Write the C-alpha cells for this entry.
Amino acid sequence: MAAFDEPRPQMSPEDFRLLRDLVHAHCGILVREDMQFVMERRLAPRLEALGLEDFRAYYRFLRYAPERRAELEAAVEALTTHETYFYREPQQLRALSDELLPQLQRKNARTRRLRFWSAGCSTGEEAYTVAMLLKASGRFEGWDVEVYGTDISRRVLEAARRAEYGPSSMRAIPPEVQQRFFVPVSGGAGRLRVREDVRAWVSFGQLNLLEPGAAQLVPQVDVVLCRNVMIYFDPAARRQVLRVFHDKLVPGGYLLLGHSENLLNLSADFELVHLRTDLVYRRPEPIAPATGGRP
Ligand SMILES: C[S@@+](CC[C@H](N)C(=O)[O-])C[C@H]1O[C@@H](n2cnc3c(N)ncnc32)[C@H](O)[C@@H]1O
C-alpha cells in the first residue's frame, strides 16, 4: 500500500478521455465527464498492482500488453457497481407473479418448459428471486425450468454460484420467503445459503452484453430481466443490447427493466404492456395474415 506522503499519480484530462473511451468501447459503460476524480481514485490501485508509473502507462498496458484482457476486466470491475438484493422492486415482482406467471403457465402448457434470463445479474440475488417466485407460485413443479444469470464480472459470478448471503442482500425479502428458501451456513456467522431445489433451477455464466456474438450461448427465453444495468450505458450501447434481447425473446416474451429505465427513443421493437400493478415491455407476436374478410 502506498505511504500517505507518496504522491499519487494524477490523471490528465487526456488520460481520462483515452481510458473512458476504452472502457466504453469494451462494455458500454459510460463514465460521466465529471467523474475523472472517481476514475482516478478507483484505478490508482491497479497502477500500483502492476508497478506502473502513471495513467498513460496504464492505458498503454490496457491496449497492448499480452495480459490486456484480464486487466480490462479488473478495470471494469473497479469502475462498476454491483449493488443488488433479493426481491428488489417488489411491485414489478408482484406483477410478474400475479399476471405474467399464470399467462406463461397457459402459454407453455404443452411444452412445460420455461426460460428466464437475468442479464447483469451481479451476485445472483435477482436470478434466485425469480426461481423463488416460480417455486412459490406452485405452478411449475415438474416443468423444465431454467433461470440463466449472466454478468460481465467473474468475481460476482463466483459469489452467485456460492449462493451464500448476509443481511444486506436480505433487506427486502419477505420473512416467510427467507424461512422457506434458505438454510443457515454452518459456521457462517448468520449467513444463509439458497436451498438446493432453488439452486437447481439457476445457472450462471460470464457474458459481456456488448460483445458481438457473446449471447450465442443463451437460448430463446420467455422473460428477460435487465434491471439497473443499462442505466450506465449510452444510447448506442442500449440499442445494441436491446437488439440482442429482442433476438433472444420468444415472440410474446417479456422484457423487465429497472424502474428508472424505459425504451423511449431507443427501440420500436417492443410494445409497452400495462399490467395492473406495473408496466413491462413485450416482443410483439407476429401479426396473423389477413383472411381477406371472406369466410
Ligand atoms: C447494479 S447491478 C444490477 C444487478 C441486478 N440486475 C439488480 O437490479 O439488482 C449491474 C450489473 O451489471 C453488470 N454489467 C455492467 N456492464 C455489463 C455488460 N456490458 N455486460 C454484462 N453485465 C454488465 C455489472 O457487472 C453489475 O453486476
Remarks:
- The longest strand covers residues 249-257.
